[in-house]
Design goal:
mainly beta, 413 residues, disordered N terminus, elongated
C-alpha cells in the first residue's frame, strides 16, 4: 500500500498540474477574505485555500468544486451547534490541518463536523474533530482517504450520540491511522466494499470500536480496539480479511472482542485477543479460517452459538482463558488442528512437539455456565475439575469429533 503522505503529495501534484491556472488564496481576520465560505465562493476549481491561525465561527460551509484547503497553524472552526460544519459535494477535495468543534446535534439529522456526499478522490487528513455528533460522515462516495485524524467525543449514551467515522454506500476508501474515542461506534461501515481500515486506534467508545454490516471484500489490519463497550461487530458480510489487529479489554456482562454474525468466506489471522469477556462470539458464520491468533486471559476465547460450519482453526494459541471453547449443538464439521492449549495435559513420547492424544477444548462446566450463569463462582473448585474431566473422557454434551487431534506442546510464535 502506498504511504498515505506520499499518496496525498502525488494527488495534490496531479491536481495542480491539471488546473494550470490554480490560485492560492489566504483566509484570516485581517485578509481581504476573512471567512472560508467567502474564499470558496471566489475560488476557481483546482485552487488552494490557506487558512491562517485563528478561530472561525462558521457552519454549513459547502464545498461544491475541487479545492485544496489547508490550515496553516492553530486553525479552529467552531460550528456553534448549528448543523454541519463542512459539507463536501465535489470530487478532488482535500482538507487538512484544521480543528473542528461543536457540530450540530439532532435526532432527525445526522449532523457531522465533516459531511461528504457523492464525492470521488477526496482526502481528509491530519485534522482534529472535538465534540461532534458524527465526526466524519461519508455517503455514496468512492476512492477517498481519511487519514491521521483525531476524533474525540463526549458521548454518554448510545441513543444520544453518533459515530466517529461513518461510511454508507461507499467503495475503495482508505481509513488509516486515525484515533477515535468516546463516540457511539468508532468506525461504522454499511454497504461499503473494497475498502481498508488499517493502523487505527479506536478506544473508549460506547458501543463498538468497529461496526460493519453488508460490507464485502474489505480488509482490516493493524488496528487497536481497546476498552470499547462491545469491541467489534461484523455482520452480514463476506470475503473479509482481518489480520494483525489487537482486541484488548473489551470487558462487560455482554461484551466481546469480535462478534461474527452471518459472515462467509473470511480469513481471521495473526490477531491478538486479550482480556475480553468473549474474545470471538460466532453465530451463523461459515467457511472462515482462523489462523495464528493469540487468545490470552479471556473469559471465553471462542463461543459458538450455532449454525457455524466448515470453519478451520489452526496454529492458534489458547493461553489461560477461563474457557477456551463453548459450543452449542451436537453436530460439528469445524476443524481444530495444530493449536496450542495451555490446559492440555497430554504427553509427547515421540518428541515431535505434537501431543500424542487429542485435546477436547469444550468443558462440561462451560455448558453449565451457559445455562446457569450464577455457577461461574464455582470456576476454580475441585468439583468443577472433576466434571470437566468426565466430559473429556466420555463426551455427553458436545460432539464426539470436536477435538484437536494434533495439539501443540509449546506456544506457537
Amino acid at each position: 500500500m502506498i504511504k498515505v503522505r506520499c499518496f496525498i503529495s502525488i494527488l495534490l501534484s496531479v491536481g495542480l498540474a491539471t488546473w494550470s491556472k490554480a490560485a492560492v488564496r489566504e483566509v484570516c481576520a485581517a485578509c481581504p477574505v476573512s471567512s472560508l465560505a467567502a474564499a470558496i465562493s471566489v475560488s476557481a476549481p483546482g485552487d488552494s485555500i490557506t487558512i491562517r491561525p485563528g478561530t472561525y465561527y462558521e457552519a454549513n460551509i459547502i464545498i461544491s468544486k475541487p479545492l485544496t484547503i489547508v490550515g496553516n497553524g492553530d486553525v479552529l472552526f467552531d460550528g456553534g451547534g448549528r448543523g454541519y460544519i463542512l459539507k463536501i459535494t465535489a470530487d478532488q477535495v482535500a482538507v487538512s490541518g484544521i480543528t473542528f468543534i461543536n457540530s450540530g446535534k439532532s435526532y432527525t439529522h445526522d449532523f457531522a463536523a465533516i459531511y461528504i456526499s457523492k464525492s470521488k478522490n477526496f482526502n481528509i487528513f491530519q485534522n482534529k474533530i472535538i465534540n461532534p455528533y458524527f465526526g466524519i460522515l461519508v455517503e455514496k462516495s468512492h476512492q477517498g482517504t481519511i487519514a491521521e485524524n483525531i476524533i474525540k467525543g463526549n458521548s454518554k449514551r448510545e441513543d444520544d450520540s453518533g459515530n466517529g467515522i461513518h461510511l454508507w454506500h461507499c467503495s475503495k476508501i482508505e481509513i488509516v491511522k486515525n484515533e477515535v474515542t468516546q463516540l457511539r461506534d468508532g468506525i461504522y461501515f454499511e454497504f461499503v466494499s473494497e475498502s481498508t481500515v488499517s493502523e487505527n486506534n479506536s478506544h473508549g467508545n460506547i458501543r463498538y470500536g468497529l461496526h460493519f454490516m453488508f460490507s464485502n471484500n474489505d480488509e482490516y489490519s493493524y488496528n487497536l480496539f481497546y476498552n470499547n463497550g462491545a469491541g467489534v461487530a461484523v455482520m452480514f458480510s463476506k470475503f473479509i480479511l482481518m489480520h494483525h489487529n489487537k482486541f484488548v479489554k473489551n470487558w462487560g456482562t455482554a461484551s466481546y472482542g469480535l462478534l461474527l454474525k452471518e459472515i462467509y468466506d473470511a480469513e481471521i489471522k495473526d490477531n491478538s485477543f486479550e482480556e475480553n469477556t468473549i474474545a470471538i462470539f460466532i453465530e451463523g458464520s461459515t467457511r472462515i479460517n482462523y489462523i495464528h491468533n493469540d487468545f490470552a486471559r479471556n473469559g471465553w476465547a471462542i463461543k459458538i452459538a450455532g449454525a457455524a460450519y466448515t470453519n478451520y482453526f489452526t496454529q492458534n494459541n489458547f493461553v489461560h482463558n477461563a474457557f477456551d471453547l463453548s459450543y452449542s449443538g451436537k453436530i460439528n464439521d469445524n476443524v481444530f488442528d495444530g493449536n496450542y492449549w495451555s490446559g492440555y495435559r497430554g504427553y509427547d513420547l515421540d518428541r515431535n512437539n505434537i501431543g500424542d492424544i487429542p485435546y477436547r477444548p469444550v468443558k462440561l462446566f462451560s455448558y453449565i455456565v451457559n445455562n446457569t450463569p450464577e455457577t461461574i463462582v464455582l470456576l476454580r473448585s475441585l468439583f468443577i475439575d472433576i466434571i470437566n474431566f468426565s466430559e473429556s473422557v466420555s463426551p455427553v454434551f458436545t460432539p464426539d469429533d470436536l477435538a484437536d487431534s494434533k495439539p501443540m506442546m509449546y506456544e506457537l510464535k
